[in-house]
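so my prof wants the structure for this chain in the C-alpha cells format not the other one, which i didnt know existed until like an hour ago. anyway here's the sequence
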Amino acid sequence: MPHLTSTNTRKQGTGFHTGLGIPGFAHPLVAPAEWAELTRPRTAPLHWVVLNVADGPGSRPDPHCLEAAGRLRNAGIRVLGHIDATYGARPFGEMVSDAQRYLDWYKVDGFLLDRCPTERTALPEIRRTVTTLRALRADAHVVLGHGTHPYPGYAESADQLVTFSGPWSDYRWSQVAEWTADYPPDRFCHFVHGVPQPHLDEALRIARWQGAATIYFTDRTDRGGRTDPWETMPGYWDDIVSRIGTGVSE
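here's what i got, hopefully its the right format
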C-alpha cells in the first residue's frame, strides 16, 4: 500500500490515544454551533483547538473569542493561538508579538505555527521562535503546521508536527517519511479535507499506519482553494467522534 514505506517498529508514545485536533473553526459569531459542540460531553479525546481571531489575535480582545476560549479552558480543553509563519517569511518580532497578545488576552495554552517552513535552512529561526514562545509560557504546547514532512530536525523543536494537510485524494495515496518511525504517534498530526463518510475507516487506518495520533477529517472541501475547509464541522461529526471514542482506529 502506498502509505506503508517502512517496517520499522514505531516508538511507543506518552499515553496519547488517537484524538481530534481542531485546525480552527470560523469566528464564534459565524460558527456558534461548532464552538458550542466542542464543550458538549463526547467520547473521543479532544487534544486541542486552534483559536484564530482575525488571521492572528487581532488588534484588541474580542469578547466572543474570549467567551469561546474561556469555555474550552474551563472544560479542560487545550487552546492554541494561531500564528502565521508565512513559510519563514514572517518577521520574528511579529510572531512573538502575536503570541504575547494571545497569552495576555486569551490565556492560550500554546500555539500553532501555521504555514511553517520545511527546509533545513529555516530550522534555526523556527527553533529560535519556539524557544522564545516557551520563554513566554514555559509549558506552551507548540505545534508546527508544515502540512507535509519537513526536514527531520524540526521534530526536536516542537511538541507536534502537522505532516499532512490536504485533500483525501492525496491522503489515500500518501507515503510517510521513514524518519517518523523514530518518534511516537503523539508527535504527529494529520488534517484531511474532502473525506467521504464511507471512507472514514480507511482514513483512520491510514493515520494509524502512518503514526499520527492527532487527526481532523472532514467532508468539507476547499473548492479549489476558494474556501477554508476547516471553518465548519464535518457533516459526520458525531460519527467520527463515536469511531475514535470506541477505538476503531486503534
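also thought this was worth mentioning. The longest strand covers residues 160-167.
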